């Protein structure tokens, strides 16, 4: 098939500021609900008019606290209405807000506060306050700390006391005049990349970067004003944040989940019409369904075979044969309708980003009537550069370039991006900025990809993740890992082996699925460590993994597999807050196990357990 090295979407998008989006939404939809949030099991709401008044008060309180245009203000919080309200308040006084992941350790929080020179900090819970209290003496620029929860503490202002700092009387004319001083090229936010390697860098995103991304994504996704979403990806990352800017502007209801761990329950209550997530959510839904046993399992597997045949014809632009159509209608009624109901029953589409989505899983959601529009982008691109749409949809790709965006493939396969969403640069790091943005404005993404003849972009791997074996063979690990994630026995997987004789795998089993299998085999299933050390378990998981890799070339096939009894996690340091695996940290943590694979190269056994 022919391919392109350059694709451009010349559709123009207007330039503007995030303040304009906020003010326009509040003017047009004053009494319409803007936010919803849970108090225990009750879902409460905040109208646009209430949001507008609170932002006015918070903006006045920031000024009264000594914050001036161009200052930095940090936000350390889980998703909740106050996150958005304090963000809009910062934008309206010209402060650059600095989001901090709520999962970060005290020393990492201190680094971001000091590197950015944050003058004020909003935080959520007592847990976050304890972390800040531990490192506050190390942050000399930090003058004001505001807590969303509780009654305040020594050195901590409560949210209510902070709002009262601005005084009782509001001067709307002065508030709007100050807010409208914002210019498209002003830096709106400083987002520190969590990164899979190296020291975090502050990405400077301007009003224009985010405003144009909102406009281009609206052209692609066509969001309506009656939509509802469930917001649960961290607002500290630009993906959920940009989407929430778009939805607020369009007048949609943004409901905040209790936490990222309660999404399955919260989604049934909120009944959203669109949701953005990372692939982990879709992998979990898919694996729970495909792990069904008995008559239910037989029914589901039949429905999936029928759905797959229907999707193959539909995606190829053909009308499915009549027998396939009526079987698909039955499968939809008996199986897929239950999947749709499990996510609220109203969902038009999902959007996926942050990591590659397995084509098999994307295809399943398509024939289940829940299309997943996979997209692509980075923090440095505000974030979206490409996205599939309901009209232009191709599984296995991240879609075509959005409006006003160019994509080019460099000679070494790296994806380059140019457009109004490309960052202003890294904060106080001109050399690092020059390394990724050339004189012509092309941003080097660090990803490897290809563009098909119709302009759809396919990501093949991260440039830094490509494994080059000692024999000089190149292996792209992500497609292999994605294939394995469709196996219900596999929860997490990472392939390693750079500059080694052969590749190896580290696998975290899905212990709920593995536990059920163990109990059926009479194997104790209460201790994860004991389970992965059982020889029958090792044989079973070896078969499950290797069965999925028959299609690989001999040099791509892993020769050894390590079973882990602990999940990769943010707390462990092996995952980023956006659920990307830190390969180097994984390799460091399991160095002894990995080195053993190569020391025992001649041993026929190919599955081992972590000590």
Q: What's this model, at a glance?
A:
The chain is built from 21 helices and 29 strands. It is α/β, with parallel strands linked by helices and 611 residues long.
Polypeptide structure, described:
The protein is 39% helix and 21% strand. The protein is an alpha/beta fold and 611 residues long. The strands form seven sheets. Strands 1, 2, 19, 20, 22 and 23 form a six-stranded antiparallel sheet that branches. The chain has a five-stranded parallel sheet with strand order 6-5-7-8-9, sandwiched between helices. A five-stranded mixed sheet has the order 14-15-16-17-18, with helices on both faces. The radius of gyration is 25 Å and the shape is globular.
Class of secondary structure makeup: alpha/beta
The unreliable regions are none
Number of helices: 21
Question: Could you say which overall geometry the principal axes of the C-alpha atoms support?
Answer: globular
Number of strands: 29
Fraction of residues in helix: 25-40%
Can you lay out the helices and strands and say which pair or pack?
Layout (H helix, E strand, L loop, with lengths): L2 E2 L1 E4 L8 H11 L4 E7 L2 E6 H17 L7 E5 L4 H13 L2 E5 L5 H11 L3 E4 L2 H10 L8 E4 L9 E2 H6 L7 H8 L7 E6 L9 E5 H15 L6 E4 L6 H13 L2 E4 L6 H8 L3 E4 L1 H12 L3 H22 L6 H21 L6 E4 L6 H9 L4 E6 L6 E4 L12 E2 L3 E5 L4 E5 L6 E2 L3 H7 L6 E10 L4 E6 L4 E2 L5 E2 L1 H8 L5 E7 L7 E6 L1 H10 L7 H6 L1 H13 L12 E4 L19 H7 L1 H9 L7 E3 L2
Parallel strand pairs: 3-13, 5-6, 5-7, 7-8, 8-9, 12-13, 14-15, 15-16, 27-28, 28-29
Antiparallel strand pairs: 1-22, 2-19, 3-4, 10-11, 11-21, 16-17, 17-18, 19-20, 20-22, 22-23, 24-25, 26-27
């Amino acid at each position: 098939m022919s391919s392109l090295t350059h694709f451009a979407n010349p559709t123009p998008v207007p330039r503007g500021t995030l303040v304009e989006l906020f003010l326009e939404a509040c003017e047009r939809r004053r009494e319409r609900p803007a936010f919803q949030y849970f108090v225990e099991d009750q879902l409460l709401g905040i109208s646009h008019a209430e949001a507008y008044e609170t932002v006015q008060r918070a903006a006045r309180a920031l000024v009264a606290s000594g914050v001036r245009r161009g200052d930095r203000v940090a936000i350390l919080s889980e998703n909740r209405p106050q996150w958005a309200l304090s963000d809009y308040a910062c934008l309206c006084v010209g402060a650059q807000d600095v989001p901090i992941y709520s999962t970060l350790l005290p020393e990492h929080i201190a680094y971001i506060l000091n590197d950015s020179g944050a003058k004020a900090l909003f935080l959520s819970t007592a847990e976050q306050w304890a972390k800040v209290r531990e490192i506050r003496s190390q942050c000399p620029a930090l003058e004001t700390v505001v807590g969303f929860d509780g009654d305040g503490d020594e050195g901590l202002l409560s949210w209510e006391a902070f709002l009262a700092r601005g005084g009782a009387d509001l001067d709307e004319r002065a508030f709007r005049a100050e807010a409208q001083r914002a210019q498209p090229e002003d830096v709106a936010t400083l987002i520190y990349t969590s990164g899979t390697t190296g020291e975090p860098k502050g990405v400077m995103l301007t009003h224009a970067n985010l405003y144009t991304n909102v406009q281009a994504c609206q052209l692609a996704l066509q969001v309506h004003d009656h939509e509802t979403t469930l917001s649960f990806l961290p607002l500290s990352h630009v993906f959920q944040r940009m989407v929430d800017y778009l939805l607020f502007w369009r007048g949609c209801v943004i409901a905040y989940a209790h936490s990222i761990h309660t999404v399955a329950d919260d989604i049934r209550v909120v009944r959203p019409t669109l949701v953005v997530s990372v692939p982990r959510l879709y992998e979990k839904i898919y694996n729970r369904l495909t792990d069904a046993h008995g008559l239910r399992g037989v029914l589901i597997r039949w429905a999936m075979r029928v759905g797959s045949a229907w999707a193959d014809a539909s995606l190829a632009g053909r009308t499915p044969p009549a027998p396939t159509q009526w079987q698909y209608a039955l499968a939809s009624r008996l199986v897929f309708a239950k999947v749709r109901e499990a996510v609220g029953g109203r969902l038009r589409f999902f959007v996926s980003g942050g990591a590659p989505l397995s084509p098999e899983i994307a295809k399943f959601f398509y024939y289940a009537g829940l299309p997943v529009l996979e997209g692509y982008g980075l923090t440095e691109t505000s974030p979206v550069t490409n996205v599939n749409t309901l009209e232009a949809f191709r599984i296995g790709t991240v879609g075509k370039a959005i409006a006003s965006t160019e994509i080019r493939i460099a000679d070494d396969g790296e994806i380059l991006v140019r457009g109004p969403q490309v960052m202003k640069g890294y904060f106080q790091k001109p050399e690092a900025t020059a390394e990724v943005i050339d004189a012509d404005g092309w941003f080097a993404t660090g990803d490897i990809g290809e563009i098909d003849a119709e302009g759809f972009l396919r990501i093949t791997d991260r440039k830094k993740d490509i494994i080059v074996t000692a024999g000089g063979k190149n292996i792209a690990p992500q497609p292999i890992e994605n294939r394995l994630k469709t196996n219900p026995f596999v929860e997490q997987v990472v392939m390693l082996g750079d500059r080694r004789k052969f590749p190896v795998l580290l696998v975290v089993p899905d212990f709920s699925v593995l536990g059920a299998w163990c109990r059926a085999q009479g194997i104790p299933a209460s201790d994860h460590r004991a389970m992965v050390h059982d020889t029958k378990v090792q044989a079973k998981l070896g078969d499950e993994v290797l069965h999925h890799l028959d299609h690989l070339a001999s040099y791509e096939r892993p020769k050894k597999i390590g079973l882990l009894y602990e999940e990769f996690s943010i707390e462990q340091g092996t995952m980023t807050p956006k659920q990307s695996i830190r390969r180097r940290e994984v390799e460091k943590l399991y160095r002894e196990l990995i080195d053993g694979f190569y020391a025992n190269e001649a041993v026929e056994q190919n599955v081992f357990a972590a000590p």
